Amino acid sequence: MILTASESESKGGAELLPSLIKRLQNLWYRRPVRTQILIAFLAVTVVTSLFACFLKVLDAGNRTRIEMRASMDLAESFVRETARSLLNETEARNLLQTLEAQLKHLRHVRIEVVRANGERGPSKNRPPQEPSNEREPASVPRWFIEMVRPPANRFNVPIRVENQPIATVLIQGEPSDEIAEVWNDYRTMLLLWIGTNLLMLSALYVVLGRILDPLVGLAGAMKRLEHGHSAVRVEPPKVRELRMIADHFNQLAAALDAVNAENSRLCRDLITVQEEERRQIASELHDEVGPCLFGIMVNASSIEQYAQPLPEKISSEIASRISEIRTISDRLKSINRRLLKKLRPIALGRITLKELITKLSTEFELRHPNIRFSTITNDLQLSYGESIDLTIYRCIQEGITNALRHANPKNIVVQLAHETITGPDGEAAYSQISLNIRDDGEGIRDPAPNGFGLATMRERVRALNGTFSLSGNWPSGTAIDITVPAGRSTGEKRLAAEFFGNRA
Ligand SMILES: Nc1ncnc2c1ncn2[C@@H]1O[C@H](COP(=O)(O)OP(=O)(O)O)[C@@H](O)[C@H]1O
Ligand SMILES: [Mg+2]
After folding, report:
1. Which residue stretches belong to region Disordered (predicted)?
2. Which of 103, 224, 311, 471 could lock onto 232 through a cystine, CB 3.0 to 4.6 A?
3. Strand spans (E) along 425-497
4. Within this chain, do residues 355 and 323 fall inside the same structural domain, yes or no?
């Protein structure tokens, strides 16, 4: 489609407005609610206040005009009444001498006497040549004077004695006092308004904080709950409605905590039962199946010996069957061995933890020659007792199996180290075993699917008061980080010393 310049311009203009509105909306909704409410409050207050100021200025103008008018009317009628009753020139002169003094208390007017010979009498305030309504009160802003000042107004009252004009009294409006007064009122009102609004804004800020801060805390607690920290609780806020929400949240978290604890207990029971069952099956396989297979082989050998004196045809037939029995027995033996290894690391407690892990890794390596396995161990003790050794063994076994089964990696790295954690004073505070299993496979999609393998790992570690963290960086790589306190019971230490004494 070809657009002419004006078409494309109008189209651009039409698109500009919605995009501008969208950008403003984004900007607005990205602000915290507290800021939004404060801005809205401020905007409404400023608009209404500007309107109120405008009305007030109009009112001030009217007020000044009315005041001026009243004062000037009063002055004029006073001068006219007094002038009407004059009998002779002496009285008139006396009046002109005292007129200003008499009217000096009259506000908002300026009296000036111009005698018949053009001579001007003393003025009340200022030099007579300056027009009175151009005099501006000090400290009142010009814009205010311009808006409030009434139009210039003056009266001339002629003074006559026996029909002879002897002087003229000029009465002029003098709005500066009134404007200054109105400005003072206006300024006080403005300061009051600013003070009140600042106070209201501060109060609103505090109140909103008291309402919104607990909500933010609640959101954070919910996020923590979502990530499995069911021990999280929120401080009940002072606001009644929020306190109810917080109480319900705490009850929910407590219920979840209880369910999790029950779940953990069941899982640990399951692990214990599973380990026990595995141990029993392993010992059956070892103690029963092994000797049975041995018996079969021994019997097969003796049958072979008994068959030797028999005729050639029969003895060779028997020998071939015996060979088949041996092959089957060998296969059964290797299956038995493999099963035993899977069920329970037979060497557990007989070789060191380092050797046990290296052995496990080598077995995986033999079965998966295309994958590079790296096993790094640092400062390990010979053994940490059966429960810790078995947990580490099982975690590595499950971690590597998961990587092989789900991730198709090229490299698998297992790092196992004994770490001494120092306190703030530099003293050794406690020691722990740190295990990291990393692969560069496909990673885990978020959210991680639930499986028995990972749950079991987590529970095994939790049972030893350790920490477990899994980060599946989809689309590449998975990392499992485990720490387990390295403590061992005194009994276990003694046993290990006896067992590995000669190798320590
Ligand atoms: N190293 C890994 N790489 C990719 N995905 C993994 C890895 N470990 C676990 N997973 C994912 O997590 C899920 C749960 O694992 P797990 O609890 O061991 O159960 P299972 O192995 O029986 O499926 C797996 O099904 C898999 O999708
Ligand atoms: Mg698994």
Report:
1. 117-137
2. 224
3. 428-439, 467-472, 478-485
4. no
Between the CA of 395 and the centroid of ligand 1 the distance, in Å, is 13
Task: Check pLDDT > 90 for residue 329.
Answer: yes
321 and 357, same domain (yes or no): no
What is the arithmetic mean of pLDDT over 432-461? Answer: 86
The residue length of the chain stands at: 504
Label residue 384 by pLDDT band (50, 70, 90): confident
Statement to judge: residues 236 and 180 lie in one domain: no
Quote the domain boundaries for residue 107: 33-123+136-198
Q: Is residue 270 part of a domain?
A: yes
pLDDT attached to residue 436: 95
On whether both 375 and 240 belong to a single domain, the answer is no
497: its two tokens = 């010393």
Using the atom order of ligand 1, give the atom closest to the CA of residue 441. Answer: 3
Q: Kindly list the protein residues whose Cβ atom lies closer than 6 A to any atom of ligand 1.
A: 402-403, 405-407, 439, 441-444, 448-449, 451-454, 478
Residues 374 and 275 placed together within one structural domain of the fold: no
Query: Does residue 230 register a pLDDT over 50?
Result: yes
Mean pLDDT of the residues in the chain: 82
Complete DSSP assignment for 371-434: SEEEEEEES--S---HHHHHHHHHHHHHHHHHIIIII--SEEEEEEEEEEEE-TTSSEEEEEEE
Q: Do both 452 and 437 map to the same domain?
A: yes
Please tell me the distance between residue 405's alpha carbon and the centre of ligand 1 in angstroms. 8
